[in-house]
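Why does this matter for the project? Reviewers at the last site visit asked to see concrete outputs rather than summary tables. In response, this paragraph embeds two records directly. Each consists of the residue sequence and, immediately after it, the corresponding structure tokens. Nothing has been edited or filtered.
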Amino acid sequence: MISFLFLACSNPETIPEGDIVGKLVVPKAAATRTVVTATDADDDGNLEYSTSEKTDLRLLGPIYIGAFAGIDNISFAYPHPSMGPVISEDSRGDTFPYGGISVGRLDFACYEALACKVTTGRFSSYDDIIDHFKNNLGRPIYDQYGVEVTSGEAFQQWCFEYFDATADYEMSFIGADNLSFVEEGDNFVAEFTLNHTLRVEGMAVWGFMDAPELRSDVPDTNGNFTTCASDGGREVDEYVTEFHEGRSYYDVLNRPGSYITYGDWVSDGEAVVHFDEDLKQTEEVVVNLNIPFEAEE
């Protein structure tokens, strides 16, 4: 019995799961949009809108990255992970990802007006969020009483009250040290790690960005993300407020084609991972998010 236990504990087999590290490259063109600025010149609540073109890191939505068996270049108008059987006409096949992560995730930033509209790793401060919503999306932030939020101090104090917090570092959606990207020439670049991922030689690493909705004709919908379930997340029912904080859908990487819409950006599908005999990654994986999806709206 002792010999048996010794042999069982000295199993030399390599664990098939491990971390995959890589670099995400996003062209600045993906963060270049026609933005909408809202102005209340007479301070009477009637907003006027103007537009301009701007390149702004804050216009990058959550970027979902996964490891897959392969890439399908036929079924969609862009490279897409290989899928399993399509069981019904109204359902996409499952991609069965080996692992996945997002560079920036959807987070709740204290106000009902911001549910499903804030991505982590994009904002350095509360004022940064206020400015983005008013001058990029044309949607000033209003609190639960219909009063416009115009100062970072007011934003901060409400967040502290809402989350029973005492410090800004408890707010995962802000912080200069929490920004996901750095500028490199014409690109924004970020490092990522696919944690505890099944390691399969030659597997594809692919991703897409869910870009925020941004239209000058319907500013009320600006900032929405198709990957966010507005009826999900924690339910809030207090005093004058009743809403859900929102969350990402659970199957975004299983059925990405169901969520990719006009204005989103997709990787080229050329990133693959190679391992040595001990399943150690042999070279850097670079995911280039360089294909805009420009189908008609």
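We now turn to the second protein, recorded in exactly the same manner.
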Amino acid sequence: MIERIAANLLHRNGIQRVLDRLDEACVTALRQFILIGANPQEKHVDRLLQFGLVIDGQVPDDLAEVCCPLFVKQVLRQFPAISEPCMPSTFLKTVLIAVAIHKNASAKTTHSKKNCLKNVAKSALLPHDDYSVHCALDYLESEKMVTWLDYENRYCLAATPELLAWFHNDTLKNLRYFYSWIIHKTKMQSADKLVVSLGRLQETSNSWIEKNVFSDMMRGLSMDWLYRLGLIRFWQPNQHETYIQLTPEGWYLSTSKYPLVWEKGLQISADSEIFVPHNYDPMIVALMNMFCKLTANDYFLVFDLDELHIRGSRIYSLTTFLEAIQTRCEELPSVVQYQIEAMQN
């Protein structure tokens, strides 16, 4: 008899008939339990036990395997590419600050550390009172990648060998260290769990998941803080629905799979301006910024190829920089191609 019940449950039609007999709150509890590991309330556990859906406080693996596709289908939506301005992530701002310090943006000493930081933020085209700017400096200092120099009570920030080594790290390694530091500093471990759970459910860059799936996990987390952090996006097609998905950074951090939108994505004009989306690979942004002057930080990051800083070769080779432009640009104007070939000779 037990084997027949189990066989019935493990058949999709069988499990659907059982789910149809449960009230909505109980189905939601089971869905949360299977999709994100949220423990159901005792009243729901009792009901799930009656139908053999929970045994010893757990959903059997083979049963969860049958239920999971059904539940994912219920909460997953596919929206076409949503063209909204991207919020620069906290890590991207850290990269911009790090490059500004390396390029001696604050080589001119100031009477206060506050004014020195203003100079750095200005070079990175970031508001000096942005929380992320202070967060970036805290991180770089805590990891001993930058240091304060004091010349008779006049200050400037300087890069250390640790910062030069950091620029050579791959993106995933730097993302992991940075966000682990943030989560530890803010004691927001639930944010880490949210990113991991989203990585399991999100199928493509057009996939969005109903926000209420993560209601228990997001308790105590500010939507604005999550958005500014830069790992998660929210979308409200109407006033009654809210969906959530990982940004490319969040996707890479959660799945270790390099985002497809990063393989190309750069645009370059005939005037030799490189347009980089804010949600692009931050270490490629560092490469662009090391060689080119950052001229705008609005809808895109804009770099001027005409103002080439060959000193960037102290960290990256000119060949690496030019190859990145050639392989990652959607289309290369012939005048720019000629300009690149001239640099390579």
